[in-house]
């Protein structure tokens, strides 16, 4: 893997010849706050825009309809168009909320969105100078805040440079994402994995089949999906409590988000929920989102106890990937978190970046601390030390406890 600075330089070099006139472009910027208007504008943005599955119509609509209604959360859908042509530039799904006495503008996330990025339009700038010009226009239009925190941003969105990742001052996030692209032939992929891991997968499958009436199932109905989600909550809660981590996603708003995401997603094909069952009981479950080309894993659970001995979490990932691969999906995103089980599947790190900008003297203190932490993390990374704060582990606890 390239060093983080090299990743950004390479993207900038590719993008540089694209739009020489973009640095002189002017923009019209609209901020939409009303839920009904937001839904219509999001539909329009997604028609021709580029987005990760976490900025897809299903995810963002469910987010704003649930977590976006929290008392101290103000939705801010920022829509940018080119003034001279009227073409879409980008759409930013943001919020303004209060944290520790500070007003912060951030992506629509609150701990559930794995990658944050704009929805890119056809007129999006793709080189650093033009990206800086665009950002200056956006910054002037944003409401007052102490701090702007854009976390976990990918360098590209569907192959197009992310202009926010080209801004001066971006630095590596706490963890990269991890992805793998599988060739047309599934067996070719399996044979490319480490021999020990292949043997463990085979053993897991054989032991699972011996346990009783064992089956892998893709959940098709909303009624059954709600039952699987309820079991997933119980399994994750028990597992994380056993490990000593906080479980923050069993609050009402978070549960409402996942319920909405799955209910709407099963209907329009953007959500995938699978389960391993034995004698009717749910042994493991996996929830993810897809845009038809890529599948991103969102939540994973298993029953623990003796089921850990057969690697139920590892097995449901493999079964789900195999089923989706047969349906034409070749790119699989294991999301953030450098957890041991991922390496067996042949994943590669995908860098993510943060951008933090102070807009008040109170915000400058936080921005300075963030920059200092980023510097320490970079030094530790160069000497091979991994540093994942406990707060990050707690907040993104849905990833922990797989086997």
The number of domains? 2
Under CATH, the topology of the largest domain is which?
Aminopeptidase
Counting H and I runs of at least 4 residues, what is the number of helices? 12
CATH class of the largest domain: Alpha Beta
| Helix and strand composition category | alpha+beta
Shape: globular
Distance between the termini: 26 Å
Q: Which range best describes the helical content: under 10%, 10-25%, 25-40%, 40-55%, 55-70% or over 70%?
A: 25-40%
Q: Whole-number radius of gyration?
A: 21 Å
- Poorly predicted spans: 14-22, 378-403
How much of the sequence lies in strands comes to: 25-35%
Arithmetic mean of pLDDT: 85
Counted beta strands: 17
Word description of this protein:
The protein is of the alpha+beta class. It has two domains: 4-172 and 352-359, 3-Layer(aba) Sandwich (Aminopeptidase); 179-348, Aminopeptidase (3-Layer(aba) Sandwich), CATH 3.40.630. The chain has helices spanning 4-15, 35-48, 57-65, 128-141, 186-191, 195-210, 222-243, 252-268, 312-326, 340-343, 361-382, 390-395, and strands at 27-32, 73-82, 88-99, 102-107, 119-120, 147-154, 156-157, 160-161, 171-172, 177-181, 214-218, 271-278, 281-290, 294-302, 331-336, 348-350, 352-358. The strands form three sheets. Strands 1, 2, 3, 4, 5, 6, 9 and 17 form an eight-stranded mixed beta sheet that branches. β13 and β14 form a beta hairpin. α3 packs antiparallel against α8 (252-268) and α7 (222-243) crosses α8 (252-268). It starts with a helix and ends in an 8-residue tail after the last helix. The model is unreliable at 14-22 and 378-403 (pLDDT under 50).
